[in-house]
Task: structure prediction
Amino acid sequence: MELYSEEQISQANSVDLLSYLQKTDPSRLVRISGSTYCLKDHDSFRISHGKWFWFSHGSGGSSAVDFLTRVHGLSFIEAVAAVLGSRACCAAKRTEPAMSRLLLPQKSPTSDRVTEYLQRRCIDAEIIRYCLDRGLLYESRDGLNAVFVGYDRSGKARYAAIRSMVSDYKGEATGSDKSYSFRIKGVARNPHLHVFESAIDLLSYATLEKQKGLDWTKESLLSLAGVYAIKREGVVPKALEQFLQTYPEAKIIHLHLDNDEAGRGAAQGIIKGLKDQYQVMNQPPRNGKDMNEYLIKKKKH
Result:
């Protein structure tokens, strides 16, 4: 664990949230009026005049460190490291961007809440245990978030999606690289790859396959950590591009993106980007907005 001087801690505490996000994740900010902003992924969150407040949670603060500890579940030292790192990266002049250090939320000693949360979403208990045992999934220390971890081929954690279990909040751990988003690799030399927008949609598909009596671990499953709202002609998401480069045996791509404008647009962009190299099939959920909604509706019927 790194130790910081009082001066460094003071520097970190002096960084307000708006300045931090403008440097590290500006696309997450939405201007409401004047100097007041909300977060794209949570419109009840307000940033104004150097302070922030999350109305749906009754929580607020005045610094980026407060935000990272109270909202993202980082320890104080992890939050200080993230803020100081953002200052250093912005001040330094580099010809190539440096690899960000992934700061994972601290882990809860139990997995009771995340198991119960995912089972409420109709995810199969055996599939949840599979992910817990392999470090693909865990519960944050405060018991408020489910954390879905993505690894590179060497087994190093490079990405983490954070999904609140008590609100609509969806985010990513500081330093996440979308190229290595949450995935479950199938057996060697299997040419089929199934693609989803989120980790929960991926697990929903796996549950549906298991319900059919099929081996859901045979074919590869990949989440994209979200898609762009506007269709981008012929553009392949980072996560999919990285997977195809790393595992060239993947030749048949099944797209299970959401039944909305963003999902349909992203599917069209991927199909155009890969049509000359791969067999790409657009297979959105048969019913409902996404795979999890389809799974839930199917269970009710």
